[in-house]
Fold this sequence. Notes:
It is a single chain. This protein is mainly α. The chain has two domains: 1-53; 75-277, no CATH class. The protein is 61% helix and 1% strand. The chain is built from 14 helices and two strands, in the order ααααααααααααβααβ. Strands 1-2 form a two-stranded antiparallel sheet. It starts with a helix and ends with a strand. The protein binds iron/sulfur cluster (2 copies). Residues 224, 241-243, 245, 247, 260-266 line the site of one iron/sulfur cluster. One of its GO terms (cellular component) is plasma membrane.
Amino acid sequence: xxxxxxxxxxxxxxxxxxxxxxxxxxxxxxxxxxxxxxxxxxxxxxxxxxxxxxxxxxxxxxxxxxxxxxxxxxxxxxxxxxxxxxxxxxxxxxxxxxxxxxxxxxxxxxxxxxxxxxxxxxxxxxxxxxxxxxxxxxxxxxxxxxxxxxxxxxxxxxxxxxxxxxxxxxxxxxxxxxxxxxxxxxxxxxxxxxxxxxxxxxxxxxxxxxxxxxxxxxxxxxxxxxxxxxxxxxxxxxxxxxxxxxxxxxxxxxxxxxxxxxxxxxxxxxxxxxxxx
Length: 277
Ligand code: SF4
Ligand code: SF4
């Protein structure tokens, strides 16, 4: 097989297996259409990257992100945010939001790290078109990252309270919370990007999903490695990384190692082709 097609075909194969397994297990054709759509888009985007087309990742972000937020979230009224995940979990309903979290954010990152953040997140897709692609200063604001864990706990407690109070029309309320939550995420994401001159400031300091993403992605099978003696330590990879990862260090506990979103900017910018995934 053409070597440019190996990874895209492999990714499509993984999604095909997920699609068939869930369709048969849950007896619902939706999962076949949903995962084949996501798998096809991802494979096309990765193929575009492999052949050096710089718009491949943005294409994937917008086609998957808009599908999730508009079709699943707004049209089908499924709360796909963290609040929805907790809500459906408390209800004991194993449906789209819970499956989505299990695959993309809780267990999947052991295989593909924070691929979700780089290719499918509908907050990230907007943040990535802001003007501060790489932060000027790769040092984080001390302790600000703790906010994401506090937001995670607040969302958990908030949904738990609503659930146990048995609030009337809770399904509809969860839909409103989904819309408001997204608007707040976009507002905080855009304002913090401009204040800190860093497109991904929201991901580094505020996003509560990272509470799930970071521990699993520590063990990620897919990760950027410096595999070559040719590395001249020019730091171009670090300077072009939106997430401040030190990819000159191959250890799993490298600086900001669990922040890598697999955008592959480091690989594209390496003049000696020393980085590999
Ligand atoms: S950190 Fe959060 S907001 Fe950023 S891309 Fe990942 S899930 Fe989206
Ligand atoms: S530039 Fe490289 S290390 Fe940084 S987030 Fe992208 S893929 Fe990961």
